[in-house]
Every structure is written in structure tokens, then in C-alpha cells.
Design brief:
This protein is of the alpha/beta class and 265 residues long. The protein has eight helices and seven strands.
């Protein structure tokens, strides 16, 4: 019960990684706010999380727009009176466009959805925490794309790189109020965005051959890292990035490219 009675907001929590984080937070005793653009997945998650016995407020919101974000935080204050933890998870997960073909509108949409949303939500949460003179934790969801480039995803990778830089800057600016800011960078994780993109076993195997731990991550793997940053276990940790990626960013090249690679016996 590491989050007992703490009010925690998780954006993009209708499914995938956000849903996994919300479930873990509920198990840890949080008073939970789930926020998602998709009404169907949002209310399905709400019903399942309430079945775990916790307090849950579900808010349909598009976090790429400032007015809905303001309404989200007003709803949270009206219901719970405070904010202790914010997890900025909402994102456009697989926006692909070759750099030569990318339009300005596409670029703006990706940056607004994946980066500006983090700024807006974090500022709202941090102002509440600072005004109430209480410690808080903000956890941003980045990606290993902030360190290793995806093909045809330059806007996405730029947004995730921006999240990591902003996380460090937020950590310094907010430290006097004891508001911590950290980020978790998931690797290949079993979410609809990934599994729908890899419909056949052959496609999945080719991808898993690039992961040293030889499996997809699960939302629960990411949730465990987010929980650490959100909890008092990380009370002296701020401005840090933790990659939950099965070892991808650590390797120089995938094992399938090594001519003499052999599995240890």
C-alpha cells in the first residue's frame, strides 16, 4: 500500500501501459483518477478498477488541448481536493511519416499530443502541489526512442527527447517545493499499438530477436518502475530517466546481427 490515500492521476489510462499503471496504483491504495480520450476504453477500465475496491474517478479528456486539461484538474479538485501524483502517459503511440514527406500539421499534432500535453498537465499539477505546500511526484512516460531513432518517426522521437529534457528541467525548478519529476522510458511493450502492428508470429519473432531479454515487456513491468518514482521509496530521486526496455538501449547491435553469436549453454 505504498500509495495509500494519495490522489494519483494517470493520463491515457484506458488501455495499454496507462491501464497497467492505473491497476498497480489501485492495488497500492491510491485514490485514482483515470483520464482518456476514448470513452469506451475509459469506462471499461473504470469498471474493472472499481472492482478492485478502490476509489476511481474517470474523466474523458483530450490532453492535447488546454481547456479540457483545465477542466480535468478542476474535476479532480472538486472530487478529491488535491493531487499527489501525476503520470503523463497519454500519447500518440505510433505516428509514422518519413522525414521528407512529413507535413507541418503532422509535426504539430505529434508534438502537441506527446510533448505539449506533458507541459500543460505537469504545470497544473505542480501549481496545485506548490499552492498546498505538499510534496508531490510527476512521472513522465518517455520512450527508448528518445535515445535510439525509429525509422519514419522523427516527430515522435523528438517529442520523447523533449520529454526527457523537460523532466530534468522540471526537477530543478520544482525541487524547492519538494515536487519530484522523473521519467520512465518503455521499450517494446505488449500494448495494442505494438501487437496490432505485428499480427503474425514471424513478425513478432523478428522484433523479439532485437531484444536481449528476448520478450516483449508487459504494462506491469513499466508500472513497477512508475510506482517506484511515485512512491516515497524515491523521495531522494528526481530528474532521472529509467529505461524499461529489456536491454535494447544497452546493446551496440542486436544479437541477430552478430555473425558468431551463440546462445550460452
Amino acid at each position: 500500500m505504498r500509495l495509500k490515500d494519495k490522489v494519483a492521476i494517470v493520463t491515457g489510462s484506458g488501455q495499454g501501459i496507462g491501464r497497467g499503471i492505473a491497476e498497480r496504483f489501485a492495488q497500492e491504495g491510491a485514490r485514482l483518477v483515470i483520464a482518456d480520450k476514448n470513452e469506451t476504453t475509459l469506462h471499461k477500465a473504470e469498471a474493472e478498477l472499481k472492482a478492485l475496491g478502490g476509489e476511481v474517478l474517470a474523466v474523458q479528456v483530450d490532453v492535447s488541448q488546454s481547456d479540457p486539461i483545465a477542466a480535468l484538474f478542476q474535476s479532480v479538485l472538486s472530487t478529491f481536493g488535491t493531487v499527489d501524483v501525476l503520470v503523463n502517459n497519454a500519447a500518440w503511440a505510433v505516428p509514422t511519416a518519413h522525414f521528407l514527406d512529413m507535413t507541418e500539421d503532422f509535426w504539430d499534432t505529434v508534438l502537441r499530443t506527446n510533448l505539449k500535453s506533458v507541459f500543460l498537465c505537469s504545470q497544473h499539477a505542480a501549481r496545485i502541489m506548490a499552492d498546498q505546500k505538499k510534496p508531490g511526484s510527476i512521472v513522465n512516460i518517455s520512450s527508448f526512442g528518445a535515445l535510439r531513432a525509429h525509422r519514419e518517426m522523427s516527430a515522435y522521437d523528438a517529442a520523447k527527447g523533449g520529454i526527457e529534457s523537460m523532466t530534468r528541467a522540471m526537477a530543478v525548478d520544482l525541487a524547492p517545493w519538494r515536487i519530484r519529476a522523473n521519467a520512465v522510458g518503455p521499450g517494446l511493450t505488449a500494448t495494442p499499438a505494438v501487437t496490432d502492428y505485428l499480427p503474425t508470429p514471424e513478425q513478432q519473432k523478428r522484433l523479439l530477436d532485437t531484444v536481449p531479454l528476448e520478450r516483449l515487456g508487459q504494462p506491469s513491468d513499466v508500472a513497477a518502475a512508475v510506482l517506484f518514482f511515485a512512491s516515497d521509496d524515491a523521495s531522494y530521486v528526481t530528474g532521472q530517466i529509467l529505461y524499461v526496455d529489456g536491454g535494447v538501449v544497452a546493446q551496440l547491435r542486436p544479437a541477430v546481427m552478430e555473425r558468431h553469436h551463440k546462445r550460452p549453454q
